[in-house]
Design goal:
The structure is a single chain. By secondary structure, the chain is of the alpha/beta class. The protein folds into two domains: 164 residues, Rossmann fold, CATH 3.40.50.1970; 178 residues, Dehydroquinate synthase-like, alpha domain. It is globular. The termini are far apart. The model has no long low-confidence stretch (mean pLDDT 94). Bound molecules: nicotinamide-adenine-dinucleotide (NAD) and zinc ion. Nicotinamide-adenine-dinucleotide (NAD) binds next to helix 2, helix 5, helix 6, strand 7 and helix 7. The site of zinc ion (ZN) has 5 residues, from helix 12.
């Protein structure tokens, strides 16, 4: 028997109010099967009721609630979910619905992908970041020993349903976090989108549905060309070599840095590197700097060695060398670029004078 490869299994993305999508039909495939809904404390309070009251098939669903926050995207929390699924007798024909931000979709996707070698799951992202990035593209994962996404799988959801109605209760700082991934998508591949995003002052009020859709489209197209990240898909990691190191650096401190915020700072620092090492112009860099500084505080430690040590664990590295993405211009990105310690030192120096 032939098995389909990951690339043939990329999950469909559907937009619009959940009630108008194929979600209900999708659920009907699981009639007489068990269904669990994974939430965190906040999506439990703000998003769950809509699902349970809106869809008869979910009235009796098993609700599994996680503590909110990146510090809970860890193995110990997975154990609890596996325990609940096991105790409730979930089998491979049953379904897990991930209703939440990227923490829930990453952890839920991972939990499902290895439970009995693969439980079907559906993603319903409820944060801007999960809509434009985390819930799309089939990467799942958890943090391990303080390192971001150290353990994970490529696993396709049955489908991802993007209903921007869920954003009504999203706190404003989370809008800024999701906006960082949109900025990244524009910087790596769409100068027009960058110009549109540069005009936005109040993200929550001015970000248009079509712009969110455009951002997702960019990611979906790149993933479709290289689902398993052998080449082109690496550009989606622009800003993340330094961004992930910053996020890990502050993970278990009193001043944790959200993923999107860390990525925003990473975009700035990796753009700075792109001026010296690639062909990004100083004028382009300044427009990036202005945009990032207008939205995000630059929380950057003076501990270059600490950050460098974390960058040694980046998944894009090759042969012990740190590899990063660089911009050749706004809207154009190259990958597999070697970074050395002095580069990081130089990029950080301008923010530590
Ligand atoms: N798999 C991927 O390809 C991929 C891509 C990008 C990011 N990620 C991961 O995604 C995570 C970040 O995602 P995130 O920013 O969504 O984090 P998150 O899931 O922690 O959500 C941020 C906060 O918003 C709350 N929230 C979510 N939806 C809400 C709603 N509708 N109303 C009120 N509160 C709501 C959450 O409870 C949480 O407190 C990181 O772990 C990152 O590594 C994964
Ligand atoms: Zn990211």
């Amino acid at each position: 028997m032939q098995t389909a490869s990951f690339s043939e299994q990329l999950s469909p993305i559907e937009w619009g109010p959940l009630l108008d999508t194929s979600f209900e039909t999708q659920l009907s495939r699981f009639t007489n099967r068990k269904i669990a809904i994974l939430v965190d404390e906040n999506t439990h309070n703000h998003c769950l009721e809509f699902l349970i009251t809106g869809f008869d098939a979910l009235a009796e669903a098993e609700v599994i609630m996680l503590p909110a926050g990146e510090e809970n995207k860890v193995l110990e929390v997975c154990f609890q979910v596996w325990e609940t699924l096991t105790e409730a007798g979930f089998g491979r024909q049953d379904l897990l619905i991930n209703l939440g931000g990227g923490m829930v979709t990453d952890l839920g996707g991972f939990v499902a992908s290895v439970y009995k070698r693969g439980l079907a799951f559906i993603n319903i992202p409820t944060s801007l970041l999960a809509m434009v990035d985390a819930a799309v593209g089939g990467k799942t994962g958890i943090d391990f020993e303080g390192l971001k996404n150290q353990i994970g799988t490529f696993a396709a959801a049955q489908a991802t349903y993007i209903d921007t109605g869920f954003l009504q209760t999203l706190p404003s700082e989370e809008w800024a976090n999701g906006f960082a991934e949109l900025l990244k998508n524009a910087l790596i591949s769409d100068v027009q989108l960058w110009q549109d995003l540069s005009k936005i002052q109040d993200i929550q009020k001015e970000l248009r549905f079509e712009t969110i859709q455009q951002g997702v489209q960019i990611k979906a197209e790149i993933v479709a060309k290289d689902p398993s990240e052998n080449g082109l898909r690496k550009i989606l990691n622009f800003g993340h070599t330094i961004g992930h190191a910053l996020e890990s650096y502050y993970l278990n401190t009193d001043t944790p840095l959200a993923h999107g915020h860390a990525v925003a700072i990473g975009l700035l620092l990796e753009s700075k590197l792109s001026v010296g090492q690639s062909s990004l112009t100083q004028a382009e860099f300044l427009s990036i700097e202005t945009r990032i500084k207008s939205l995000y505080t630059l929380q950057i430690p003076n501990d270059i060695e600490g950050l460098w040590a974390l960058m040694q664990h980046d998944k894009k590295n090759d042969n012990g060398e740190v590899r990063s993405c660089l911009l050749t211009a706004i809207g154009s990105c190259i990958f597999d670029q070697k970074l050395v310690y002095a580069d990081l030192q130089a990029a950080l120096a301008i923010y530590h004078q």
